[in-house]
Amino acid sequence: MCSHSDASVVTTARWVALISTCLFVALLANGATSYLKRVGLLDRQNFELYVGTYCGGPAAGKPSLTFPCQCMQDPLAAEGSASESESKSPLLSRRYVYDTAGYERVFKVFKDLLFAGFVTLSIFLMVTRKVRLPSLAAASPMLLLAVSIGAGFLISVALWGGVFALVGLRSFAFLAVAFVGSWVAGGIHGFASCAAVMLLIQLVLVGFEFLFGIPLRFCPDSFRAAGTTVLSNSLGVFAVVALGFYRSFSASRLYFWILLLITAILVVASGSGTAVFALSGLLGFLVLEKTQGARRLAAVAILLAVAVLLTVKLPELTQRPDIYNSLLAPEGRLDSLGRLAREANAVELLVGRGVGFGTNSASNVLSSAPVALPDNSAGEKFSADSTVTVLFTQLGIVGIVLFYGVLGWGFWRDAIARPFYLVVAVSSLTIIVTELFPVNFLLGLTLAHTLHVEDQLRRARAT
Questions:
Q1: What pLDDT, on the 0 to 100 scale, is given for residue 98?
Q2: How many CB atoms lie within 10 A of CB 3?
Q3: Distance CA 46, CA 96 (A)
Q4: What count of Cα atoms within 13 Å lies in the side-chain half-sphere of residue 340?
Q5: What is the spatial distance between Cα 213 and Cα 226, in angstroms, rounded to a whole number?
Q6: What separation in angstroms does the CA of 253 have from each of 32, 108, 123, 244, 439?
Q7: Scanning 53, 71, 334, 421, which has its CA 20 to 30 A from the CA of 446?
Q8: Residue 257 φ then ψ, to 5°
């Protein structure tokens, strides 16, 4: 006869297996239509016209397909080769690849159903006393962040309306997972296995994309993959975060080096500078973890030299000569953050302009309601492209301090999760990790694990 504890472990393992399957399906579904359009399995007519016109080159006005298409002409530069009707179509910016309409929008809902289903299941298990809710004291760092989000929600309701505020809360769904999900701590290695499978599947998809897909940049060196993460930078960051999650929580690290190779391939294919630095940071951390004394000092010196070399050679490694423009150019990440800080009044500087402001979620869902969306100084709908900037616009300096305080708390209190927290922190500087799926879900699970660890330590001290 099995004990109650054994039965609980079996039940947890079953739920983890189910949720892992849903996570895997949601990742594929979220970017399915975009991926299928890029490889010509959906909307074949536009695909053939685009590739034939801008990749193969028109022959006497007749597009010709060339595979693999590794050198895509800039559509604006090649506009003269397209007919007048074609030059006014979404083909010039590949908008048809990213636009979703009708049934295509259903696939985007899968990730929201995953979050909602996980939270609902967790609450049910708590109500039925099958799992235990951690103490509030153990969750105090996350509670402070939640209070800041609550204040941001009230500000957003007052300034932009209830619908906008509710949509803005989607960016913080990871925190709901963290509060109610500590019961998965004992089976979190199951999610680590899921992360490994997701990396393998993305590698297969990227291989097919390389052979038959539309490049996501122009000549020379046009190819840049996205898999089912929709955007190339997202693919690179997801790959490194998934590797960090596997390294932190896998029951066996037998396949780590194979997954490291897969991750490196995905990072190179994505052309993501952020992912290059995040992967380098992860490897550097693992090296330092294994060294002590004088060897550690030598390792630090070597790693600093490698970091400088990476910084200098990053444009060549990613085949993106202008890669630093996104960070340093006018209206780049640093300039945008500085401008927002200068334009903010004292209250906005401290607590922000309300949840939803600057998020992709609000822009996408409410794009049909211009009145509900705040404008920037240029009169265009404002959106941010780093976690720091989006937190500043929503929750101000207080929100930034509390969010990174939570990451620091997790890094300090949960030793096995440190590789994951490190790569998330590095990636967050140039991408919105709270909105990037499934990175945000993995972040919620990791915080839930840390909460469980903290709760166990407090209970042990109390006894």
A1: 74
A2: 8
A3: 8
A4: 29
A5: 10
A6: 30, 33, 32, 12, 21
A7: 334
A8: -70, -30
Sorted by sequence, the CB contacts under 8 Å of residue 133 that are 6+ apart come out as 126, 180
Q: Which whole-number Å values give the CA distances from 199 to 101, 131, 235, 263, 421, in the listed order?
A: 28, 31, 10, 7, 19
Residue with tokens 């028109």: 58
Cα distances (Å, whole numbers) of residue 369 to 160, 163, 353, 365: 11, 10, 19, 9
Structure tokens at 372: 């509900």
Looking at the DSSP bridge assignments, the partners of residue 381 are: 375
What is the distance, to the nearest Å, from the Cα of residue 11 to the centroid of all Cα atoms in its chain? Answer: 30
Residue 356 has pLDDT above 70, yes or no: yes
- The whole-number pLDDT of residue 134 equals 83
The reported pLDDT for the residue numbered 67 is 64
Side chain identity at 288, as an amino acid letter?
L
Average confidence (pLDDT) over 372-390? 59
Dig out the tokens for 43 from the structure: 């909307």
Length of the chain: 463
Strand partners, 62: 59
Q: CA angle 420-422-424, nearest 5°?
A: 70
Binned at pLDDT 50, 70 and 90, residue 414 comes out as: very high
Whether the link from the prior residue into 63 is cis, omega within 30° of 0, is no
Helix axes 188-212, 4-30, angle to 10 degrees: 20
Q: Which amino acid is at 334?
A: L
Rounded Cα distance, 461 and 410, in Å: 19
Distance CA 299, CA 115 (A): 41
CA-to-CA dists, residue 249 to 118, 277, 325, angstroms: 19, 22, 36
In the block, tokens 């006497």 appear at 60
The whole-angstrom separation of Cα 442 and Cα 423 is 12
Q: How far apart are the two ends of the chain, measured CA to CA in Å?
A: 30
Query: For 460, how many CA atoms within 13 A lie in the half-sphere containing its CB?
Result: 6
